[in-house]
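Work Package 3 (structural annotation) set out to generate three-dimensional models for the target panel prioritized at the project kickoff. During this period the team completed the workflow that converts sequence records into discrete structure tokens, so that structures can be stored uniformly alongside our sequence database. As a representative example, we reproduce one entry of 42 residues exactly as it appears in the project archive.
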Amino acid sequence: MIRKFDKPDIDPVIKIWLEASIKAHNFVDSEFWKSNLPPDFS
């Protein structure tokens, strides 16, 4: 089911984005993607 995004969803969404970005753009150093994470990402 699709539901409205809630603030507590941010960490799982960022984790999915990071993993997908690294896999989809394997020609880009993964440190580039990690450097674009929010400072408070856990």
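The helical segments are 10-24, 30-34.
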